[in-house]
Amino acid sequence: MSARYDLVVVGMGSGGMVASEFAARLGLKVAVAERHRVGGDCLWTGCVPSKALLASAKVAHHARNAGSFGLAATDAEVDRSEVWRRIRSIRERIAATDDNPERFASLGVEVCLGDAVVAGPHEVRVGGRLLRTRFILLCTGSRPAEPDIPGLADAGFLTSESLFEIEDPPKSIVMIGGGPIAIEMAQGMRRLEMDVSVLQKDRGILPRDEPELVAVLQRRLVAEGVGLDVDVETERVTHDAEGKTVFGRAGGAATSWSAEEILVAVGRRPNIETLGLANVGVETSATGVVVDDRMRTTVPSIYAAGDTAGRYLFTHSAGHEAVRAVRDMFFPGRGRVGSLVPWCTFTDPELAHAGLTEAEAREQIGDAVRAHTFDLAHSDRARADGNEDGLIKVVTGRRGRLVGAHVLAAAAGEMIHEYALAITEGLKFTRLANLIHVYPTLSTSTGQLAAEVVFDRAVRYRNLVRIWKRLPRR
Q1: What's the pLDDT band for 412 if we cut at 50, 70, 90?
Q2: Which residues touch 36 (CB under 8 Å, ≥6 apart)?
Q3: For site-directed labelling of 332, which of 26, 33, 91, 223 has its Cα 20 to 30 A away?
Q4: Where are the alpha helices (DSSP H) in 274-334?
Q5: Cα dist. 125→5, 180, 219, 223 in Å?
Q6: Domain boundaries, position 254
Q7: Same domain, 213 and 360
């Protein structure tokens, strides 16, 4: 049995949902193959549950520290099982509304449940059905990578896929990995009264972010009681009735870390092995399906987006890439993806990133690079909110154009978009001084920092002012 479509999307996560809705609104005949649940990692194991956990953790943290706001502090009693139930209820509400398969069906999208195999350049097999189509878009996402550490598999461990399914969260946990997932969960779980140890193989956490801001965040995490070890080489894992122990070396010294549970967060791997891509000539690599700047694979009728393509492993990037891919299919040459992808690690304070770090800029651009910083200790809003622990760092290149921006602040994820737009448009940083920023907001600091740069450059006109002052008045 076969059917003819304009587009078949494989995977109904962040990229697949956006692509199928966009295509349907264009009046195209669309089918989506999904082997598990609509919503993908973002809804079920990633963005939504992790942010729900962080929200509960922040409330508990504020209750314990209410004294700094002139209120009576309380020893917030944490019921972690109830927190986990709240997380699952939020997922279910979203799944029943915005991510409901029936909503997509009402848009004209046919949802086909089952494992999908690409049977040809224009064919996708889902169960016993063969879907014939003009184009195929692969949006199969990724899964947590599992390190080959002796004893780890026998001891058992959690990943982002299993973390939010447990009924009785542990009292203590060792995290292997120091990227965004591990660091967000480390702070959140510590605030939920769990003993937390983070083991990072690199010399610092969050290695893709601006080191100066990461250092401030790291001090905050340690002050809140997160155990953090860097330059760690994990060697083996053991377990017994008391819990699990990771053995290794930290900075060359033999060390061990014990807890009730282990969370592994050492990166992700694309879900592409079962798609049959080699049989149809689609090139792949260790990071995913190989694509060009229009998200086309080596087979012209097959595209890939999101984690499947491995460019950036973010929900917002997946949606952008998927829409651009659909646009390119039906309006060829119009679907090139953006090279700038901002991101945010949702700790407290948040750490947001757009463009180049200072080190990257100096390597790529050279002596024209300048770095400008603003400490949130000078932000009236940060002082009023009790969130002075933050920093803004802006990197400019030739002719003062913005090439990078990094924000450590309570609302950094909201603030970064102004910078991202300025970088995309090739604006000089001083242009942001011309925009009137609402006071008092954290974004006021953007205007203040840009104004400081303008004021510094205005010094060159001091001699002209002296001459003007000597001129006779009429």
Answers
A1: very high
A2: none
A3: 33
A4: 277-280, 315-330
A5: 13, 36, 52, 54
A6: 152-266
A7: no
